[in-house]
Amino acid sequence: MVDMSVKIAGVEFPNPVIAASGTYGNGECYTDLYPLSKLGGISCKGMTIEPKLGNPPPRIAESYSGILNSVGLQNIGVHGFVEYYLPTLKEEGNVIIANVAGATIDDYVAAVEVLDASDVDMIELNISCPNVKQGGASWGISCEGAASVTSAVRRATKKPLIVKLTPNVTDITAIAKAAEAEGADCISLINTLLGMRIDVKTRRPILKNNVGGLSGPAVFPVAVRMVWQCHNAVNIPIIGMGGISTAEDAIEMMLAGASAVQMGTAIFTDPYSPLKVIDGIEEYMEENGIKSLSEIVGQVKPW
Amino acid sequence: MSFFCGKYPIIEKRTLAKGIYSVVIDAPELADEAEAGQFANIGVQGFTLRRPISICQIDKEHGTLRFVFEVRGKGTYALAQLSEGDSLDVLGPLGRGFNIPEGKKIIVVGGGIGVPPLLEISRETSSMCTAILGFRDYTRIILNDEFEEFGTKTILCTDDGSVGVHGLVTAPLEEELKSGNYALVCACGPEPMIKAVIKTCEAHNVPCQVSLEQRMGCGVGACVVCSCMTVRNGREYYSRVCKDGPVFNAEEVRFNG
User: Fold this and answer.
1) Structural domain boundaries enclosing B58
2) CA of B225 to nearest chain A CA: how many angstroms apart?
3) Which of A125, B53, B174, B231 is the most buried (most CB within 10 A)?
4) CA max distance for chain A
């Protein structure tokens, strides 16, 4: 038996596979198939200080090896999360990560203060949601924005803080450095890439929001590249995500510099895919005599 | 109610009309859990998203489920290439089905590919059920003989009058609601039909349950993409068609939300 555990910002995950925010609800949706405890952790559905209605439907469009979504952060609010979902999550899951979004810095801080007083293990700051008119990704597309929200939130919590980055920028490493400088314990990337699909019969965009975030295998090489660039730019750990659907993908992401991975869209295609990835990583470790996953993080040998 | 995910053998495949197929799978644990109006999210090799398809018939005794689907795009086209002996990648049964009162007379109203999920209600309620089925023209008619075989009075309508009543399902629905003492109307079909059925039921003060469609992701309530505007306790919010539906009480649905 190999040791699949990983430690990020002092938090121990029994394995490196985490369900990505917005793809796994608050852990309640797949328990008919397998217990939440099989996953290393879960990043819960993005939450805001007040409940949020989200965007009008249709909110999803299929694309080549991927999907576009424009949910727009529909959620029951941080108080609802703490009251209704967190007790069960703590009981049934491993590492519980609260993903937080907001329109203003005050919104972020208010939500994080509630979570700081709760049982969540980590906070993932969502400064990268492409589907909301105010806030969301607008914080994540400039170094000043990323720095100011990270710094404000850092003062509001002692919990390990992950900053989730958007790929829709010219230089993601500059944003990563800004987050690191303001006290982020970890960065996670990538959120979705802004995209669009049009129905050629009606000449209407398929998404009612016109544009939405692209995820799935289509974005995987972009994610690997960005994780690698960030790994070369910062000294804090990275959680890699974006189109991971197989164990090989996950290992590739770790070689690029990720200490753990998140999976999302692949779960829609195959709900068992996270478990298959965990098994596949274990097999790879056994076959290659790897005792700890830290041995492979960032170990790509660039030309 | 719980759901499963796995590959189940196709034991029968038939063509019902051009581009419309009937597939029966051997899936005892799914049949055991399934209820009329529920659906399954069917995986298609080479596609990221599963295709939500309503359950047409449930045979708990023989452990089978039947789906009827129409080829709408590349994914359903790929599904239509499967044949007996192949396996179907099924996540299901999912969602909330119809809530049918026992021993009461009911009407089911279906339009086009909205007809299949109503057949299970007919099988369960037989002569207590009246079916009003609308199709574009005679080439698109499916399953009407099966409703009749289950002992359900079946009224056919076509848009072009090529068979049965010429025109919309709402005219015969109006007639039935006037003459009979019905406890419930269940509807599934295109949105304009659903809206017209709800209006007719309101006029006659008869409860109505509607099965809705929306572009779907996970199918199990996790991703919140398949939303429809609903009102509960005086508050408007987006419900999930996959988890809170696909069947809703008509009075809680807000169209164009």
Assistant:
1) 4-94
2) 5
3) A125
4) 56
